[in-house]
Amino acid sequence: MTKQPTSTTQDDDELRPFASPPCSLHEFEEQSLPVTEILELLNALIEGERAGAKGIIAMGRNIESSEINALLRAVAGDEARFCSMLSQHVERLGGTASRATGSFAEKLAKRETFVDKLTLLDRGQSVVVRMLNEAIPRISDAQLQRDLIEMRDVHIVNIDRCNALLPD
Predict the structure, then answer these.
(1) Per-residue pLDDT tens digits for 75-120
(2) I need a labelling partner for 19 at 20 to 30 A (CA). Which of 63, 83, 133, 144 fits?
(3) Angle between helices 142-163 and 66-92 (to 10 degrees)
(4) For residue 121, which of 54, 168, 46, 167 has the smallest C-alpha distance?
């Protein structure tokens, strides 16, 4: 007879059986994304990063502060660098990298004030971070996973850098 795994609750020291045996844990683990879904994700990210780069560059055209311009150029540079990285992964995985540009640049251009543009930029960067947080654990390709982790981390840093420009 095998012994049933047990646990204790916080409220008492009574041993209770687990609700399900540990051997069924694999049923709850997220499955790896199929290559087709990875390619769709990467192309969506390419289109968003391309739009982000274009929109951020346009934002900087009306800014007189050299510090703010330098920051915006650096963030736009990150967006462009990630377009390239994502495109290389799409091709490595047998897909065709999107040449389209997402609608984010147009949305950014329609904002009237710099603060409104930064607020939208923050939301756009945050969406990318959430997408990456959801996808990274489901990607089994180690090289792609490392690059997406770096991309997520850079977006988090850029969110903080841009938020520092917002008035309190």
Answers:
(1) 999 999 999 999 999 999 999 999 999 999 999 999 999 999 999 9
(2) 133
(3) 160
(4) 54
* Alpha helix positions (H), the chain: 35-60, 66-92, 104-110, 114-135, 142-163
Q: 96, 40 in Cβ contact below 8 A? A: no
**Amino acid making up residue 54:** K
| The token pair that represents 115 in the structure block | 């603060």
Token code pair at residue 72 = 């915006």
Torsion of CA 86, 79, 98, 117, to 10 degrees: 150
**Cβ atoms of residues 72 and 121 within 8 Å:** no
Q: What is the DSSP string of 35-50?
A: HHHHHHHHHHHHHHHH
Q: What distance in Å separates the CA atoms of residue 44 and residue 86, rounded to the nearest whole number?
A: 10
Q: CB–CB of 50/42 below 8 Å?
A: no
- Any idea what the Cα angle at residue 143 is, between residues 130 and 57, rounded to 5°? 55
16: CB partners within 8 A, 6+ apart: 6, 7, 8, 9
Render pLDDT for 16-75 as a digit per residue (tens, 0 to 9).
444 444 444 444 455 899 999 999 999 999 999 999 999 999 999 988 999 999 999 999
